[in-house]
Amino acid sequence: MGARHGRAGTARGKDPVMSQRFDVCNGDADGLCAAVQWKLHDPRPGALVTGLKRDIELLDALRAGAGDEINVFDIAMCRNARGLARLLEQGALVRYFDHHEPGAIPVHPGLDAHIDVSHTVCTSLLVDRHLDGEQRLWAIVGAYGDNLVDAADALARDCGLSDEDRAALQRLGESINYNAYGEDERDVHMLPALLYETLVRYRDPRRLIEREPVAAELDALRMCDLTAAHACRVRWQGEAGSVHVLPSAAWARRVAGCFANELALKEPQRAHAVLVTRRDGGYFVSVRAPLAEPDGAHALCARFGGGGRALAAGIDVLHEPELARFIDEFAAHRWCAAQTWKEDADVRSRAAGRT
User: Fold this and answer.
1) What number does CATH give the domain 232-332?
2) Higher-confidence residue: 317 or 1?
3) CA 59 – CA 49 distance, rounded (Å)
4) 9-18, 167-176, 233-242, 336-345: segment of lowest average pLDDT
5) Which residues contact 51 (CB under 8 A, 6 or more apart)?
6) Of 204-208, 282-286, 310-314, where does mean pLDDT reach its minimum?
7) Are both 21-218 and 232-332 of the same fold?
């Protein structure tokens, strides 16, 4: 986890010189690209708080007080409810962008919530919406990284990007996303906090691709790991989907999410689960609902202590004795068309009252 401290500017109830700003984000492509958009929009100094893909409860350890500004991107509110409540009670001002199921959204004057769990949006697109497209190229990169290819393609066309530029931004988004997966820091090529420092130097991600070797390095590693994943035997497959179990290896832990996304794009009528053997036993699990029926991944994973979104979800620890039951329930699971649930700042109070 990276953290740099600095002044956040004017904030209620505190001397602006002493106020702190924190940008808190998931370390995957969607989280980092959302944070990059906001930093380019508002470049005042602040601390970045991030981690690997599975580091979600990032607000729990955050220390902030009255008037401090906290911008949160792409971490589930329901997994951070306790930390969020504490920070609001202490007088922090929290701006929250996310596309995961939020649970009960607090009604609090210090919270500015932008939540939309529709399967056609990601956090980078929510920030793009809020900023009226000010940093749209980074929103496109984030959407590609989150496997929202149709949405990203539509924005790329609106921007007049060439096919070559569009393909380059897609590779970049997928490579940033790939870099976030791992059981711990030993597995990844570059810590997300360090990668962010490179990304945020560029308003145009195409210039980053031209000038920074890390973009090509990540893409080459990703393609190598994907080749290894495709060489593994399928554990189960049927008309409705497939289950892949990868070995306990750093490359497998890195490529799990990317591999699941690739399977979903290649076979949009089928669901896919990618399991990776953990060092300590059991499995990490990444589930993708069929793109043609993009609802149900979070419901399936919740039965095994996991969570996520209707389209894409996961399980941090699936114990070995549960593997057979997981495959059975995956095979029998009924996928369905996505239900639209949308919540933004203007109606958050009413939604929280209904929850």
Assistant:
1) 3.10.310.30
2) 317
3) 9
4) 9-18
5) 1, 26, 27, 58, 192
6) 310-314
7) no
Domain spanning 21-218 has what CATH number? 3.90.1640
CB-CB neighbours of 184 under 10 Å = 12
What are the residue ranges spanned by the domains of the chain? Answer: 21-218, 232-332
The average confidence (pLDDT) of the chain is: 90
Q: Is the pTM of this model over 0.85?
A: yes
Q: What is the mean pLDDT of residues 44-59?
A: 96
Spell out the SS3 assignment of the chain: CCCCCCECCCECCECCCCCEEEEEECCCHHHHHHHHHHHHHCCCCCEEECCCCCCCCCCCCCCCCCCCEEEEECCCCHHHHHHHHHHHHCCCEEEEEECCCCCCCCCCCCEEEEEECCCCCCHHHHHHHHCCCCCHHHHHHHHHHCCCHHHHHHHHHHCCCCHHHHHHHHHHHHHHHHCCCCCCCCCCCCCHHHHHHHHCCCCCHHHHHHHCHHHHHHHHHHHHHHHHHHCCCEEEEECCEEEEEECCCHHHHHHHHHHHHHHHHHCCCCEEEEEEECCCCCEEEEEECCCCCCECHHHHHHCCCCEECCCEEEEEEECHHHHHHHHHHHHHCCCECCCCCEECHHHHHHHHHHC
pLDDT in tens, 114-147: 999 999 999 999 999 999 999 999 999 999 999 9
